[in-house]
Amino acid sequence: AQSVTQPDIHITVSEGASLELRCNYSYGATPYLFWYVQSPGQGLQLLLKYFSGDTLVQGIKGFEAEFKRSQSSFNLRKPSVHWSDAAEYFCAVGTNRDDKIIFGKGTRLHILP
Amino acid sequence: EAGVAQSPRYKIIEKRQSVAFWCNPISGHATLYWYQQILGQGPKLLIQFQNNGVVDDSQLPKDRFSAERLKGVDSTLKIQPAKLEDSAVYLCASIRGTGHYEQYFGPGTRLTVT
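ok -> structure tokens follow
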């Protein structure tokens, strides 16, 4: 069965600094990978997804993520964060066998002014 | 296109009471999911429908939770009787159909059981 680990529960960065949120997955075959963002009181919004092809994927709001099969990782990056990026970020993994995805426990991002 | 709609947005009930949540997916989306998100955790799948049939309800506590999607469009999730540990955000999501993996989420219903 697939699983997702987000090792950082909280991350604090200064506004304008770069960001990297870590995600490791466990799945025997090629996974489908997602990053979602959840602002307070809101549902989840898809930032980006990886199904196949180029391992560096671009998403909305200036985010990108890189799929590294050898490390079973799909880390999320942004070169310069804005105060509005403060939110909770969820990594998720799915497969091509069903239409379900499994979420990590999330990383809460705090932005210092 | 309109997004996934959920109501109510907030609900406070006492333990042992019953509660129902409603979800209307994006028009034309065949697959609908209900998730439970406890504070500090990621969403956990409760039940998955495809059209009006249940695909997976293995994580649904069937002694107190029930869900239906009678006409294959909107869906209701019910808890009866509620327990303190049911306090959570209940999220509804939908996808267009099999093989379309991007799930679209509603705003959620925050349930507080006192």
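Chain B touches chain A through 27 residues (CB under 8 Å).
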